[in-house]
Amino acid sequence: MSTATQPKISAEVRERTGTRYAARIRADKKIPAVIYGHKQTPVHIAVDAKEMIYLLHHNAHLIDVEVAGKSEPCLVKDIQWDYLGSTVIHVDLARVDLTEEVEVEIEVELVGEAIGLKEAGAMLEQNTNTIHIKCLANAIPEKLTHDVSEMTIGDSLLVSGLTMPAGLTAASDADTLIAHLSLTKVAAEADDDAEGGDQPEVIGGKPEDGDKPEGDSK
């Protein structure tokens, strides 16, 4: 979700904290959360579960949180899941100045049809789906896209090779592997056999000079 249309969510202050009260909040179809940072006192809140999950599923990084009649921009800093990894049980939100540089994790989407995929048995494997970037808080993109149309067999895409929009800087290691285009093992073995494996023995063929056919004692 682009910060150009910065999403908003309403929250209510939680008067109590703790496991038991958090469970009651979740039973009421809400998610416990906390707002902290900028040397201000943390505020424990509860937000509508459906609204928050919608924002998270749409890659919202910066959210205007309205609580007690006041709205402030917050970064989604951490999401806690249940033991099954299927339900959000808590969200950490950090206060942020829209003009300050922040570091966030964003999705990397590969677009285009790699030319190398036209070869039989070719496969483009994406090894990393997200990277960390640095940019102004009000310029966080929904995701980062990269065109892989020119990739051929044996090509690798590293963080250093990603196309970064103006204002964005990669914070992940430059040598981190994003994607690799290669032949599947079966296809590679088939190519090796075709290029020159063992030559088949010709039964009854003429022996080479100096060789004597088996069984010939003359």
List the helices and strands and how they pair.
Layout: E1 8-13, H1 19-27, E2 30-37, E3 40-48, H2 49-57, E4 62-67, E5 70-81, E6 88-95, E7 101-111, E8 122-126, E9 130-136, E10 143-147, E11 156-158, E12 169-170, E13 177-183, H3 185-196
Parallel strand pairs: 1-4, 2-6, 7-10
Antiparallel strand pairs: 1-3, 2-3, 4-5, 5-6, 7-9, 8-13, 9-12, 11-13
Structure description:
- The protein has 218 residues and is mostly beta strands.
- It folds into two domains: 3-96, Ribosomal Protein L25, Chain P (Beta Barrel); 104-195, RNA Polymerase Alpha Subunit, Chain A, domain 2 (Beta Complex).
- The chain is built from three helices and 13 strands.
- The strands form three sheets. The chain has a six-stranded mixed barrel with strand order 1-3-2-6-5-4. A four-stranded mixed β-sheet has the order 10-7-9-12, with no helix packed on it. A three-stranded antiparallel β-sheet has the order 8-13-11.
- The protein starts with 7 loop residues before the first strand and ends in a 22-residue tail after the last helix.
| Terminal residue distance | 89 Å
| Shape, principal axes of CA atoms | elongated
Unreliable parts: none
| Largest sheet geometry | 6 strands, mixed, barrel
Strand-pairing-aware structural class: mainly beta
CATH overall fold name of the largest domain: Ribosomal Protein L25, Chain P
Mean pLDDT score = 86
CATH secondary-structure class of the largest domain: Mainly Beta
Radius of gyration: 29 Å
Strand content: 35-45%
Number of domains: 2
- Spatial ordering of strands, largest sheet: 1-3-2-6-5-4
The CATH architecture of the largest domain would be Beta Barrel
The fourth-level CATH homologous superfamily of the largest domain is Ribosomal Protein L25, Chain P
Extended strand count:
13
Number of continuous helical runs: 3
What percent of the residues sit in helical stretches (DSSP H or I)?
10-25%
Q: SSE string, helix = H, strand = E?
A: EHEEHEEEEEEEEEEH
